[in-house]
Each structure stands twice: as C-alpha cells, then as structure tokens.
Amino acid sequence: MKEIMTVIRRHQVPATKKAFEDAGFPALTIQSVEGRGKQGGIGGWASEVDPELNTVMSSELADDTKFNWIPKRMLTIVVQDDQVEEVVDVIIKANQTGHMGDGKIFVMPLKEVVRVRTGEVGKEAVI
C-alpha cells in the first residue's frame, strides 16, 4: 500500500475531488495548509493564478520572518501499489496549469492500515 499526499491550490479542490470520484477513488482526507515554494509566497502572479488570494490580505499571512505563506490544501489518499500511477495521473490532470505553484505529489510506502471500527487490517481496511 501507498499513501499519496498532494499539495494543491485551494480553488482546485472541487475539480480534484470530482476527478478522484470519476476515477473510482471517493475516499480522501483534506487539510488546510500554508507554505511557499520557489515562487516565494504571495505576490504578483500568485494572485492571478489563484483567484482566492485576491481576498486574502498578505499581512494576514506574513509572519516575523517576512515569509508570505500561500494558503493551499493537502489531500491524502491511501491506495494499493498498483493504483499509484493512476492516482498520480488524476492529480496531475486536475491541477496542472503549467505555472509555478501547481503543487507537489508525495508517494510514501505504508506499513499497515487498521480500520478502527472492525479491526480489519491491510487491504481489507482500505477498501
């Protein structure tokens, strides 16, 4: 099994969720996160690519180190090893604009999964 985490633009969440559902992957976890990459935070082109940034005051996002954090969403999904390529493709197709800030995808091995309700482990706990 693999855990796939992706960080994407906030306004891309509905399209990404729909793409996952259409591909047969309805279960995922979403978290609000803030960060910055090579683009260096909020400024210039970032608000053009992410329309929601126009409503966020950069002073609300800036801290004492003068980093301007960009609000993003982190989606996490657990899949079988043979589904990784399909899920990565779904994420890319739903989020790729060709601009800096499209996101990142992290694929990590998962040692074990246990369903709390039933105690099922492994593949049965994920299905």
Brief account:
The chain is built from five helices and four strands. The protein has helices spanning 13-22, 45-49, 58-61, 84-95, 123-126, and strands at residues 2-9, 29-35, 70-79, 104-109. The longest helix is centred in the C-terminal third of the chain and has 12 residues, at 84-95.
Topology:
Elements: E1 2-9, H1 13-22, E2 29-35, H2 45-49, H3 58-61, E3 70-79, H4 84-95, E4 104-109, H5 123-126
Antiparallel strand pairs: 1-3, 1-4, 2-3
Helix pairs in contact: 1-4
Describe the protein's architecture and organization:
With 127 residues, the protein is α+β, with helices and mostly antiparallel strands. The protein has 5 helices and 4 strands. A 4-stranded antiparallel sheet has the order 2-3-1-4, covered by helices on one side.
What is the molecular shape? Answer: elongated
Overall pLDDT: 85
What is the straight-line distance between the termini? Answer: 12 Å
Structural class: alpha+beta
- Portion of residues in beta strands equals 15-25%
What Rg is obtained from the alpha carbons, in whole angstroms? 17 Å
The largest pleated sheet is described as: 4 strands, antiparallel
Lateral arrangement of strands in the main beta sheet: 2-3-1-4
Number of helical stretches of at least 4 residues: 5
Number of extended strands: 4
Low-confidence stretches: none
Question: What is the N-to-C succession of helices and strands?
Answer: EHEHHEHEH
Output the keywords.
127 residues, alpha+beta, four-stranded antiparallel beta sheet, 5 helices, 4 strands, 28% helix, 24% strand, elongated
